[in-house]
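Let us practice reading a record.
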Amino acid sequence: MAKLVFDIETSALPLETFDEAQQEYLFRECEKIAEDTARATRRAEIQQMFNLWPFTAQVVCIAMLNAETERGQVLFTAADHQQDADKTGPVEFVPCAGEPELLTSFWDVARRYETIVTFNGRGFDVPFIYLRSALLNVPISRKDWLGYRFQTEPHCDLAEQLTFYGVSGREGAARRFNLDFYCKAFGLESPKSQGVTGSDMNMLLADGRYRDIAEYCLRDVKATLLLYRIWKQRLAGVK
């Protein structure tokens, strides 16, 4: 059964994208803070969180690998999108003119796979791309990735599997860690080992470092695939 491992990177939309009423709604809690510095700090914190919400951010990269062949694609938005795609290795780097083209290409690939593997895809990646696709009127080829939670097909979310669906809450034996922590614990190279993290996406995009975003996203996917193989060999079937 063909499995697709994927991850997305997102970047906040410019503040001027939102009208006065939307901005008032987004920063409403700041107005309750009397002290100027504390209010400004909280406003900056909220704006940093824009990356996490599909109504305040966009998808700028999706990396994908076939779990069996390790071949795949990295789709990424780029100002110089007219350059030729990089087809020099098992993973093709494909620059896209914008988010609609990126999402359309992703759903074209997704339709060919029976199952997907993610890390926190149920909580973030999948609802994010569903909502962004709906906002941009991009047809969604797979609408079953948020189905019954307690199963691994068609969606195996490793964040769910390594916490046994949150069996012990926030502080118990099966508490949740991030991908970086799990990779280091299992002796895998962390996708953050080269100094780039998800919080750098806004800066990288502003600087035109599109390929750096693509390379980081691919490292996330490669780490997810290796972690999936460990889970499958050692933990799959634990109830």
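A brief commentary: The longest helix spans residues 210-234.
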